[in-house]
Known about the structure:
Layout: H1 3-8, H2 12-15, H3 23-43, H4 49-70, H5 75-98, H6 100-103, H7 105-141
Amino acid sequence: xxxxxxxxxxxxxxxxxxxxxxxxxxxxxxxxxxxxxxxxxxxxxxxxxxxxxxxxxxxxxxxxxxxxxxxxxxxxxxxxxxxxxxxxxxxxxxxxxxxxxxxxxxxxxxxxxxxxxxxxxxxxxxxxxxxxxxxxxxxxxx
Length: 142
């Protein structure tokens, strides 16, 4: 499934939320949907049952932390949750790398491309939130 095909099926309750404007959030939800079938395939091999659980949890944690961070009132708090999401994205990348013998290189490569984009976006979002916090502090001093 492509991102465009997936996006058409996302319910309005999600797409109408201002959080939907954050590309890293959209990509992480897309990846989470893809991870369902990936985890299902991994569960069919006894050697990767635990990997499937770790992978699915890590991928789900990305969008969860972005959404929780987005809901925080300060840049400092938002940055902290975005950092958790960044950690989960990097963890997911490792789990996908370890699953290549079951999922196959084309699937793993696709997932790693999506994860790399999420990581790149989050590496921009985190400093922006920290900078926002500094600006708020400076304005409070004046």
